Structures are given as C-alpha cells and as structure tokens.
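This entry is listed as follows:

___
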Amino acid sequence: MKAKDILLYACLGLFLTLNSCSLTYEPVDTYSDITEGVDEENDEVAFKDKAAVQSHLTTIYDQMRDRQEHWYLDLLLIAEAHADNAYAGTTGAEVVPFENNAIEGSNSVVDRDWNRYMEDIARANKLIVNIDSVEDASLTTQERARYKAEAKIFRAMVYFDMVRLWGDIPIIITEAGDITSETIEDVYDDYFPEQSPEIEVYKQIEKDLLEALPDAPENDPTDKTRFSKSVARTLLAKIYAEKPLRDYAKVIQYCNEVAADGFGLVEDFNDLFGMNETGTDAKARNTKEAILEAHFYPGSGNWATWMFGRDLVNWDSNFTWAKWVTPSRDLIRAFESEGDEERYNESIVYYETTWSNYYPSSHYPFMYKLRSANSSIIKYRFADILLLKAEALIMEGDLNEAANIIDQVRLRAGLDGLSNSTKASQDAMIDALLKERRLELAFEGQRWFDLVRLDKVEEVMNAVFAKDSGRKPLAYPFNSNSYRLPIPQAVIDQNPNLVQNPGY
C-alpha cells in the first residue's frame, strides 16, 4: 500500500472515531485551524472581530521577542560556528556538528528550527488568508491592507531564512481545511506538501514583498520593531543578491531606497551594542542604523544573553556553564591583523570562567554584541545594506564606487581606506568586501550566508581547520552539498512527500 494511502486511511480511521480529523501544530509542517470564535450563525471563524485580528498580529510581533531560538540563537550558531567566525562553544552533541561539519537530519537544532519556522508561517497565513472575511465594520479597508502587508513581510522574512538554510522547501500560503471522509483526498496535499524548487520559494518571497510595499507602514524613526516598507525594501535588496534571483541592478535600487528612507551609519559603533553610563540599560534603541530590531527593557529581559555570555545587568546570572558561539582564533587574528580595535572591542570580550573548552579559563573570549538582558537584537541594519550595495557594484564593475562605500564603513571603524591596488582588481575587491563584512557584521548571523552567496564555502572552510588550532577536527570536507542543511528526519518521516537534501 502506498504511503499516501496509509496516511489517508489513518486519518479516515480517526475520523470514524472522532467525526473529524484536524491536524495541529506539533510537529508543524501543516497549519492551525484553531479559531478565535463564532459568527452570528454560530459558525466557527478565524477572527471574530477587529480586536481578534489585532491580538493575532501582536502574537506575530511577539515572535521577535519571545521565540528567539530559531531566528536568532540557532541562526547565530549556524552563521558563525558553521563558518570560520566561531567555535560551537559547548561540547553538546547538538551543537558541535555545526563546528566540525557533521550535521545530520536527526540533529535536534535543525528539527527545532524547521518546526518553529513552520509555526511562524502558519501564524502569518492565518491572518493573510482570513482578514478580508472578518465581519467587523470598524476594521477599515486600509487597516486590513496594512495588517496583511505586515504579515506578508513577516512570512517573507521567515521564508528567506528557511530557503537559505534548506533550499527546496514547501511553499505554504494557505490554510488546510478539516479532514473528513468527503474531503480527505482534496486536503491531503495541504497537510503533506511537497518541496518547491528554491527559485519558486524566492519568487514567492519576492511576490509577498512587492505586494506588501504599497500598504506596509512607513519607517518610524522612533520604533524600529515594525515590519515596515523599509524592512520590505531591505529584504528585496537581500533576495536579489542571492543566486536564484540575482539581479544586481535591483540590489542597488533597493539599497538606495532604504537609504532614502532616512537610514545611515551611526557615528559611534558603540551606540549599536553598548550599555548606558550606569550599566543598567542598553545605550540606545531605534538608532538611524537599525532597520528592524527586537527590544527588551528592564524587568522583561532577553534570555538569549545567557546562551552567549554574561548578562551585564546581572553579572553572575547563568554563568556557570559553557556558552554557545565562542569567537575563533581565526576571527581574532583577522581583527588584530587589520588593526581594527574599535569593532574588535565591541564584538569580543574576555572573562574568567570555570571551563576551558577552547581557551584557558583565565582569559576566555565571548561574543559581545548581546551583552545584557536589555540589549536589542538587531535583525537588519544599514551597514549590511551599504556593504551589499558595494557587493553589487563590484559585480557590475564599478570598483571605485564600491570602494567608496567600503571606505565609509572602514572610516567609522577608525581604519584607513582601501589601497589603490585593491581598488584596481575585482577579485581583490571581492576579498576586501568579504573581510569587511566579516569584521563589521561578526556575530550578527551573516558570515555563513556570505560564504554561500559568493561560492566561498569550500575555499574558506576547508582551509581554516589547518590554520585555526582551536577548531575541532573536520568530520567531512565541505563541498557543494554543504551549502544546505539536512531536512529534519522526523519531518521526512511525518511527510512522505519530502525528499532529503543531497549528501545527508
């Protein structure tokens, strides 16, 4: 009997027992059919009124603060420790494979991330699919369009993270109906979707962002937590730099549009990550450089601090166990060889510890860009977009203008501009760009994706183990299959329409 038939009969058997079969979130590569209430005819509805819609939108925004495991914690593990910026940090079996390239489909981090991302997509879909049918006259046409636009930007952001991690993934943009004996054949593919080719995922992201742009809120300089037009433009610039949709003219266009929205570099790099003078709170929020960030305030702090280092507003809290994402010797050398003291001091800090997994306990380095429970998490910032524009200009052959942009970022860090010999060579400029992005954006979840985007994984990662004495031995050489993570085996076991990525 085919796997599909087995699953059909299984759900049908449950239907005969319970009258209907409604799959829920755990584990999630499906949708939620949980409703907010009933209408006047006593029929179930997704949202009974405007307040229910607004409450759900708040839940979506809360994912940026309250559910950081996948989009921040694990993304840093992948982007920094799976690249050359960091070691895994602990000896845990779930994190070490990201350092020594031994990731498998059974990895609990990979499994958690897939399911959390799919939960996020389900939340976005619920609002996008149902908002126009909400019977509440106080919910205006303009509000419906705005809320839908914000949900589409969120969905695009989630899919962008997913497609860069896994490549071919299911595109889910609707909600599945209840499974009954009459509907089971029709809804099967909704509950057990096939993977779409990577290019189709990018096109869906592009579609969501372009549709969202007219109705999304404008950038608010006093509140960088919103899914604004500027966030949509930032994502458009980033997706057009990726191979499946690559269009460097559009990268430049949207980078320019983000700049026109009023963003720029802060003068003092410390404004982005520092503490106030009394050490009781973050130094600044909503800087002109931040495009999207999650805020944390005294009394409702950010637990992710515990995973990476010390909480400077609570010095001894949760500092008895080894932390994730330990800065690598290779990254430290890169800062030192460039004479980049300012960004080095804002990116890496040393403490005395009770463990010595990678360094002597008396002088142990930690990533420093999340240094207190009150620090903001910056998802996107303007320096990233500036350097992405420089990348596009290099690829388009405008080396002088690209060098001018890179020099802006270097000047802010107190460094000299690029040499004339570097400016004269496209290959040298690409290397200079990669180095600048590495130093500027260390521990912000960019390094691995930079290497993948520019086809540098094998060149960089297969060489770093020989020159970085602190790294654990390489389990498998990096190759073309390494550019994507394995699909979680538990998800494949649940959905027979999914196919494992090559090499796993």
